[in-house]
Amino acid sequence: MTPQLLAGKRGVIFGALDEQSIAWSIAEVCAAMGAKFTLTNAPVALRFGQLNTLAERLGATIIPADATSIGDMEKLFQQSEEILGGKIDFVLHAIGMSLNVRKKNEYTNLNHDWMLKTFDISAVSFHKMCQVLYKGDHMAEWGSILGLTYIAAQRTFPDYSEMAESKALLESFARSFGYHFAEKNKVRVNTISQSPTMTTAGQGVKGFDKFFGYADTMSPLGNAPALDCANYCATLFSDLTRYVTMQNLFHDGGFSSMGMNPKLIQE
Ligand SMILES: NC(=O)c1ccc[n+]([C@@H]2O[C@H](COP(=O)([O-])OP(=O)(O)OC[C@H]3O[C@@H](n4cnc5c(N)ncnc54)[C@H](O)[C@@H]3O)[C@@H](O)[C@H]2O)c1
Description:
Belongs to the short-chain dehydrogenases/reductases (SDR) family. FabI subfamily. Helices cover 46% and strands 14% of the residues. It is α/β, with parallel strands linked by helices and 267 residues long. The chain has a single domain, classed as 3-Layer(aba) Sandwich (Rossmann fold), CATH 3.40.50. α7 links the parallel β4 (139-149) and β5 (188-194). α1 (22-32) packs across α10, α4 (70-84) packs parallel to α6 and α6 (112-135) packs parallel to α7.
């Protein structure tokens, strides 16, 4: 029997596109642990993704929202409170997109208009989301807000390109808003830095398959799967982690603490 760590909790989950999405696993785990939540994604993603299947299975309402639009997010959180019957206990931001990465532009030859769009979708959206939640007083006391990030925020992974700067910005927004939300009503704000994971966003990065294998060998526990990331997120949404805030938490099988793994030299 799955522990009912999230019984009675109300949430909003961004970013489930298809079965491979990390947010998809997170939604399944949160439902199994007793949470009620709304699901959201960009209107365009709802047309080609499979979110309906998940929503039907879990009995969750879908509310379309472009995370770069303050107006969309105001409606999203107002409607979520109405549907769920009270203030929100947890929010997952699992959003990332880079046109320069998609078009395989080299880091030394990026389109800067696209770069700004990347920052807006992948990082500024986190600030916008927090600001809408803060100003609208949507979060319950001791609530939890989480963003998903990647270690390229701290170290150079050349093919991750401008997503590295997006993640650095995202992590910084989480730290800064963590202060303001703690002061307001004890809400915590954290980011989880996840292993490479086979998803639509992940596989958009050049050479991802080879890199996935490299990270898997480098990490003493191997790459952390999406389902385990979901279990970790659930602990952070639960009351067991009430004093964890303003942190970037590595969920990566030990990758971030390794300098060299002899297995890589032997291969
Ligand atoms: N896959 C990996 O290797 C990996 C590793 C570490 C962190 N992450 C992060 O995990 C998060 C989820 O990504 P994923 O790997 O599950 O891939 P994914 O492609 O399944 O999810 C990305 C989501 O972002 C959504 N999105 C894009 N633009 C949006 C907008 N304007 N408004 C609202 N939503 C929008 C997409 O529709 C999609 O659902 C991202 O932040 C990603 O950077 C992924």
